[in-house]
Amino acid sequence: MPINLNINEQNLKAQEGETLLTVARREGIPLPTLCFLEGLSVAGSCRLCLVEVEGSSKLQPACALKVTEGLSVKTATERLKRYRKMIVELLFAEGNHVCAVCVSNGNCELQDLAVQMGVDHIRFSYQFPERKVDLSHPLFGFDANRCVLCTRCVRACDEIEGAHTWDVAGRGQSAHIISDMAQPWGSATSCTSCSKCVAVCPVGALFGKGVSVAEMKHQPAVVDFLASARREQNWHKKEEQ
Question: pTM (2 decimals)?
Answer without folding.
Answer: 0.93
